[in-house]
Design a protein that fits this description.
Length: 92
Amino acid sequence: MARDYDSQLLESVAVRRRRMRDALLFGAQRGRRTADERLGKVFAGIAITAVLCAGCVGWSFLQHTLAKQKAEQTKQQRQVQQYERPAKPEKS
């Protein structure tokens, strides 16, 4: 029972502090507070989306570059193997 009372007391103190802080920061403009909170969430969402998109573009670029390098290496290896093989003289 004592723990329930303590947790209720701590929660009510936290709620009161939050309300006092909000009243100090925003005063009577409670509608503005909710708009500011929503606007902040929108900007945070846009920033997170931009970071994710940039990461996807970077990953795609890296994959493309590595694939291109691998293709060049295989092409060079084929050319080297072609020149290393002795040409078989044709018997007539």
